[in-house]
Structures are given as structure tokens and as C-alpha cells.
Amino acid sequence: MTVPVIWNNVDLYFQNNLQQEDPVMKSVLKANEEAGLPAIDVSPNQGKMLYLLAKLKKANNILEIGTLGGYSSIWLARALPNDGQIMSLEYSEKHASVARQNIRNAGLKDKVTILVGPALETLPTIEEKGYHHFDFIFIDADKQNNANYVQWGLKLCKPGAVIIVDNVVRNGQVLKEDEHDPNIQGVRDCIELFSSEPRIDATAIQTVGSKGYDGFLLGIVE
Ligand code: SAH
Ligand code: DHB
Ligand code: MG
Questions:
Q1: Which helix (H) or strand (E) holds 184?
Q2: Which of 16, 29, 37, 90 has the fewest Cβ atoms surrounding its Cβ within 10 A?
Q3: Mutate which of 46, 146, 167, 211 to test ligand 2's pocket (most atoms within 8 Å of Cβ)?
Q4: pLDDT tens figures, 42-74
């Protein structure tokens, strides 16, 4: 996707002014590229935003769906207190193994557990593994299952939990009601669920930047 130069430059301007040099994050992106992973991680400014939101929430138990190379997992793990934990669900064994190495290199291996498999198959197993009472949930996997993931999130979360869903604008394609692309339909189903679910108080924010024109859906569970 080509991104307008000004979006990139403003993103870089904020990153350079509001973040320290970050050799760990740089090496994660380099390792992902070397392993041939798609460059669809959140941007540095979005990662920092997730980190700040998790800190604001004082999150202890995070659920992430869609690990890729662990870039967003590492941002979120940095927001955790010493005894905090992230459970991150990933379909691809290859992505998970790159992520595990990145997480080890970042010194965060005691905070992050990655479970490999289709998330709809692993979600039913995590409570018995001791992972529940999530207070922060980041959904960023196959978009057609967004609504299913939110339903699981509602089952596994604590009152007051934050749910964030990535990629809810998709260059404006979210408006295409008749779109047959299951990814777009998945985003719309998720918005509809947020809209009809009285336990969720929500908004969505459009973003432009190095990752193009997209957005986050953000809700708090009653
Ligand atoms: N959150 C990551 C990016 C995730 S990209 C970051 O910002 O760094 C989306 C990931 O979801 C990919 O790694 C993909 O393999 C994974 N994924 C796709 N379908 C999935 C499924 N059914 N269950 C779990 N993970 C899935
Ligand atoms: C895609 C997926 C993402 O999670 C993202 O942030 C950007 C792009 C994709 O599948 O194209
Ligand atoms: Mg995403």
C-alpha cells in the first residue's frame, strides 16, 4: 500500500519526538523481515498507544489474538507490572516461533505465553490453563472472526475490561455494506455486535500514518 508522504513524515515526527531510540523494537522488525513475515504489525506510534492504554488501565492480564512476530505483544508486555501476563494466540507455528525469539530477546519471556492454533480452537482451552479474568484484550487476527473473538473476550474478561480491535476502517471499506470480502464483513459484524451489546461502551477512532488509513475500535465492558 502506498501511503501519502505526509502521513509517513508526521508519524516519524511524533515517533522521533515522543519515543526514545528503541533497539529492541528495531531488531524485532528486522527479525520479522528476515523471516519473511508480512509487515502488518501495528506502527510504532500505535504500539506506544496500546502500551499507554494498557498502563492507563493498569492491566494485569492481557489477551491478544494475532501475535505475528510479537511486536504488539512486546509493547503490551512492557506495560505490565512484574506479575502481569499476556496470553497471545497465533495460528502460524512459524510466526509464533519468530515471536518467541523476539520476546526472549526483549527480556519478556516470563510475561508472554503464545498458544499456537486457530484462535477459535485455542480460546476454549485457555481458561483451564489458568488464563481468564482478562482486563485488556487486543484483537488483531483474521478479521472475519472479529465478532466471535469479541464474544470470547466477553466470556473471559473481568468487569471493566478494555477491548481493542485493530483495522476497523480498512481505507474506508468498512462502509461497503454489500462487500463480499469476509474481512470487511467481519469488521462490520463486529461493529454491529458492539452496537447491540449493552455491556459494551465504545467508540472508534480513524487513524492515518505509516500503516495507511485505518482505525481502532475501543470498548469498555460493563
Ligand atoms: N498484532 C500483531 C499483528 C498481527 S497480524 C502486531 O501488531 O505485531 C495477524 C496475525 O493473526 C497473523 O500472524 C496471522 O497468522 C494471525 N492469524 C490469522 N488467523 C488466525 C486465527 N484463526 N487464529 C489465530 N491467529 C490468526
Ligand atoms: C492486515 C492485517 C492487519 O492486522 C493489519 O494491521 C494490516 C493489514 C492484512 O491482513 O492485510
Ligand atoms: Mg492489525
A1: helix 182-196
A2: 16
A3: 167
A4: 999 999 999 999 999 999 999 999 999 999 999
154: three-class secondary structure by DSSP: helix
Q: Is the CB of residue 112 below 6 angstroms from any atom belonging to ligand 1?
A: no
For ligand 3, the distance from its centroid to the CA atom of residue 214, given in whole angstroms, is: 9
Protein residue closest via CA to atom 9 of ligand 2: 40
pLDDT tens digits, one per residue of 73-126: 999 999 999 999 999 999 999 999 999 999 999 999 999 999 999 999 999 999
User: Which of 1.10.3720.10, 1.10.287.70, 3.40.50.150, 3.40.50.2300 would CATH assign to domain 5-221?
Assistant: 3.40.50.150
Q: Looking at the DSSP assignment, which residues form a beta bridge with residue 208? A: 213
Q: How far apart are CA 211 and CA 208, in angstroms?
A: 7
**Residues sharing a CB contact under 8 Å with residue 203, sequence separation 6 or more, in sequence order:** 217, 218, 219
In DSSP terms, 136 is beta-bridged to 62, 162
